[in-house]
Structures are given as C-alpha cells and as structure tokens.
Design goal:
The protein is an alpha/beta fold and 327 residues long. It has a domain of 226 residues: NAD(P)-binding Rossmann-like Domain (Rossmann fold, 3-Layer(aba) Sandwich), CATH 3.40.50.720. It is 36% helix and 20% strand. It is built from ten helices and 17 strands. The strands form four sheets. The protein has a ten-stranded mixed sheet, with helices on both faces. Belongs to the polysaccharide synthase family. This is UDP-N-acetylglucosamine 4,6-dehydratase. Pfam families: Polysacc_synt_2.
C-alpha cells in the first residue's frame, strides 16, 4: 500500500524515523518520503545517508509540529502521515511542562486539523505504555494526544482515518538504558538497577517500524492498536549485558512504575484479540476495523503478568544482532 504514495514522518530524524525511512526505501517504492523535523543538523546528517540525488523520493522539511502553518504546507498531497515527533524525556518534561504540552498535545491537535484539511488518507500516531494510567507528565500528554487522534475520526467530518499504535520500550532508541549499562560495565562499575522486580515490554527498533506499517494496513479509524510483544526483567537485561557483574539497587525514580501496562482492566470491555494485535475499540462512535475475539472480562496487558518473556540468552542474542558490544 506504500508503493507510489507520499509518506510524511514527523520526528523523522529520530531513532524510529531513521529506521522507518530505511525500511520504506528497502521494501517499497514510495513516490515521496518526507522527513519533517526541527533539527537542521540531524537532517543534514541524514541526507548524507539518504541524499535526494541518490534517493529521488526523499524530501527534508524543517518544521515543528507546534507550527500549524508549516504543517499545512508540508501535508500538501501527502497520503500517509506517521506521527513520531514528541518530547519524551520524563525528567525534562517534569521540569519544562509547558514545552511538553505544546509539542505533545498542541502538536497533535495541529496534525489532526492539517491532515483533515489537506486530504491526508490515514494518520497513525505513535503512543507509549506510559500513556496508560500515567504517573508522569509525559505519559499524561501522550494520553491526551491519543484521545485527540481517536476523537478526530468523529469530529473532523472528513475522509481522513486516524489511529494510534501503542507499544513498550524500544531497544536501542534514544534514552534506552542499554548504552548506560554498557558504559557502566566498561568502567568496571556496578550496574544501577532501580528495582530488581521491575519489568518492561521490549522490542527492537525494526520491530516497532513493522508494527506501525502493519497498523496502516489494518486500522479502520479510532482504535488503539497494541501489538503482542514480550516482556523482560531488568535484572535479566543487566545479566545479558554484563554477566556476573554486581548491581546496585537505587530505587524507583519519580513518575516511574514497577511494571508497565498497555491495556487496563477497564479497557478490556471494548478490547478484541485479532491474533498479532489487541485492538482497543472506540466507544463514542462505530468501529470499522478488523473483527476479533473479545478478551476476557478484567483482562489486563501488563509487563509483569505477560505470558511471553525474553530469557537472558535471547536478550543477549538480540542485543548482538542490534550491533551492541555484547561478549
């Protein structure tokens, strides 16, 4: 469905954006791939890899999702929008709350309106497990963003379809704990662990891109698509990176959870299982996406009670495949 189409990625110079461009160019034949971001240096660096002289479909737009006028210009003749731009560093969001709100909430509203008015066919917005029962400002702003994209299917009165895909921690993305652990290992220091009981949902960057592209194929509008992914224990990750190295338990940081949740028990009443995804259906307007089996009442998709887990050898093998220095 991406062949001969115009695809725009907000936050396109981030970890997800760069991997998404790589997969789009290697797998499909898009007419245009537009990288929309506000960092001119990162765009310059990305052009050294995907230069328009070699990749004639590539376009680079300097812009900020806070700037609605710039979005209107960028969205002209665009078929699909992948919304990956966000301020997502939890401590920075707590210290600069209005900046996080402007980007994550006002930016989402701007994308909804620009996509509707410019005739974009489909928008998929990236969400996070931290948007579920949020404890920090970042999670709260992403919850608001999710609600904006879901409701847009009812109030924009246009043919644009808006959906949300929600997944957990991405291995190797910016802010990942992996480089931090590797650095501590190389310095011969104990690995700081917030809590030895902590668990997280875990996927690779490549898997996250394929999940989002798959969401474009199946989304009907207004749903939250939650891919089925494994969990891992933070202690197992430490052991995979630095076998036998001592750890230091430092305590859970403000706004951090022991386990992450992607579907709450309250959401289970309108959640279906379609095989490789759970789908949280919209509740204020008709659902038109794929059908599936209702999940059990009270079902909760939680990293601590997940049925799929990554072992230490599996973590170590995956880390090696991602290019990390793992003995």
């Amino acid at each position: 469905m991406f062949n001969d189409k115009n695809i725009l990625i907000t936050g396109g110079t981030g970890s997800f954006g760069k991997k998404c461009v790589e997969i789009l160019l290697s797998t499909y034949k898009p007419r245009r791939v537009i990288v929309f971001s506000r960092d001119e240096l990162k765009q310059f660096e990305m052009q050294q890899v995907y230069h328009p002289d070699t990749y004639s479909c590539m376009r680079y737009f300097i812009g900020d999702v806070r700037d609605k006028d710039r979005l209107y210009r960028a969205f002209r003749n665009v078929d699909y929008v992948i919304h990956a731009a966000a301020l997502k560093q939890v401590p920075a969001a707590e210290y600069n709350p209005t900046e996080c709100i402007h980007t994550n909430i006002t930016g989402a509203e701007n994308i909804v309106n620009a996509a509707a008015d410019c005739g974009v066919r489909k928008v998929v917005a990236l969400s996070t497990d931290k948007a579920v029962a949020p404890l920090n400002l970042y999670g709260a702003t992403k919850l608001c963003s999710d609600k904006l994209f879901i409701a847009a299917n009812a109030y924009t009165a246009c043919d644009t379809i808006y959906s949300v895909v929600r997944y957990g921690n991405v291995m190797g993305s910016r802010g990942s704990v992996i480089p931090f652990f590797i650095n501590k290992r190389d310095q011969g220091e104990p690995l700081p662990i917030t809590d030895t009981r902590m668990t997280r949902f875990w996927i690779t960057l490549e898997q996250s891109v394929h999940m989002v592209l798959r969401s474009f194929e199946i989304a009907g509008g207004g749903e939250v698509l939650v891919p089925k992914i494994p969990s891992m224990k933070i202690t197992d990750l430490a052991e995979a990176i630095a076998p036998g190295r001592p750890t230091l338990e430092v305590g859970i940081r403000p706004g951090e959870k022991l386990h992450e949740t992607m579907i709450t028990a309250e959401d289970s009443r309108h959640t279906i299982d379609i095989g490789d995804y759970y789908i949280i259906k919209p509740v204020t307007f008709p659902y038109t996406g794929p059908e599936g089996s209702p999940v059990p009442q009270g079902f909760e998709y939680n990293s601590g009670t997940n049925t799929s887990w990554l072992s230490v050898p599996e973590l170590r093998g995956t880390l090696r495949k991602q290019g990390f220095d793992i003995q």
